[in-house]
Amino acid sequence: MKHSGFTLLESVIVLGLVTSFALIPLTQFGPIKQQHAEQLFFDDFDQEWRYLQAYTLLRGERVKIHITRHQATFITFQGQKPMTTKNLMMPAGLHADLHNLSIDPPGQMGPSQISFWSDYFQRPTTIKPQMGWGIYE
Asked: Where do transmembrane segments lie in this chain (predicted)?
């Protein structure tokens, strides 16, 4: 009596092929996730920056931005007294040079350049805020 079906060896080979094809997209997930995290940080940074420019223009108060290796801190003032502080953490693998910037009324600031470095993508990203918001790679 002859049985039709797959042998154990054929089943193991097919299972191995299916598994390897299923793992290929997972190797591409890391760069996509890191790129999304970095873009989200830059979008949040841009949103906060524009809010603070409007804040200085409308309220006539100054704003300080402290950028450390792993976070950006935005401080609003009323007179000489700090009023609010917001910290924006950088994603893992993204870091910046140290900067202390200030936006003076009416939303103006002197020439400056903020450089970020992505360990994952091995490339710098430079922001030149006095030219309006822009990212230059």
From this structure: 6-26
Q: For residue range 124-135, list pLDDT tens digits in order.
A: 888 877 655 555
Q: Is the peptide bond before 106 cis (omega within 30 degrees of 0)?
A: yes
At how many degrees (to 10) do helices 29-59 and 8-27 cross?
A: 20
Structural contact between residues 41 and 91, judged by C-beta atoms closer than 8 angstroms: yes
pTM above 0.70, yes or no: yes
Residue 70 C-alpha from the chain's centroid: 11
| In a domain? residue 11 | no
The one-letter amino acid at 39: Q
- Whether 117 shows a pLDDT value over 60: the answer reads yes
User: How, if at all, do strands 71-78 and 63-67 pair?
Assistant: antiparallel
Range of the domain at 83: 30-136
The CB density around residue 76, as the number of other CB atoms within 10 Å, is: 19
Distance CA 80, CA 87 (A): 20
Count of domains forming the chain: 1
